[in-house]
């Protein structure tokens, strides 16, 4: 699970924009466009069943697919992707039901539906085999897809704790859910601030236009988000029941300060996955690709370089 707004990087050209004026929200799109260009990413769309899927793409080489969490979107990854587009074909979709992609009232967005859509998405993008990396919900989708379609997946990376592992020690979010709360749904400004505190140990740089737009969008979508939240709660510990079936090389980055999923869950994955490279990141919360994009992408790049490449078949 993740936060539904893009956070531009720390480049001087972004910081120099006057974001304190009343018209600051007008700078949102230019801020995003600047950071996409800095990461070598360009926007595109593709039809996947009834959904129009928006995505970012850049670079050449082995395909790497980056998958966001619930209520999140593709631009959360651009700074993380900056170290990858020089060597890989990086594709970052807004998963159906999220970001700019379609959210349809007659469609479900549970794990079974989203996993099947991954298959259709890879086909639509002409990706026969890819490295899959995901945050929270996105990591779980990557793992479930790899279990079902191992021939299409070169590796899996959990960039941040995956959703669905039952941690021995309950997290702050676990306790809120058990008390009947929906802590990742913001109905007003105060709940939005509480959500930020849950997600980050140290908040990344957030230009005011992005923050205001994100807050407005979260509050506006609260009722619709509740439907997706209920669908995820139905699979609250799904990955815990089947993670041993994940056979491909796997990377785990889990923030030591994660209040969404307690770091004690990292030991569960260590005990159940043979092909796991695990890193607990000190001073980091639920979203390493936003809170520590340089360090987390560096670890991921090393992991990718360690993965065996599939040899081409003889003609």
What does this structure look like?
There is one protein chain. This protein has 13 helices and 8 strands. It has helices spanning 12-15, 28-38, 78-81, 111-124, 137-148, 172-178, 189-199, 208-220, 222-233, 238-242, 265-272, 288-291, 293-306, and strands spanning 42-48, 51-58, 63-67, 89-93, 130-134, 153-159, 250-255, 276-281. The protein has a single domain, classed as Rossmann fold. The protein is 38% helix and 16% strand. Residues 1-25 have low confidence and may be disordered. An 8-stranded mixed beta sheet has the order 1-2-4-3-5-6-7-8, sandwiched between helices.
Describe this protein with a few key phrases.
315 residues; alpha/beta; Rossmann fold; eight-stranded mixed beta sheet; 8 strands; 38% helix; disordered N terminus
Beta-sheet strand percentage? Answer: 15-25%
Number of DSSP strand runs: 8
Strand order across the largest sheet: 1-2-4-3-5-6-7-8
Uncertain segments are: 1-25
Could you say which structural class the secondary elements and strand pairing correspond to? Answer: alpha/beta
What is the fold-level CATH name, i.e. the topology?
Rossmann fold
The tally of helices reads 13
Return the average pLDDT rounded to an integer. 90
Gyration radius, rounded = 18 Å
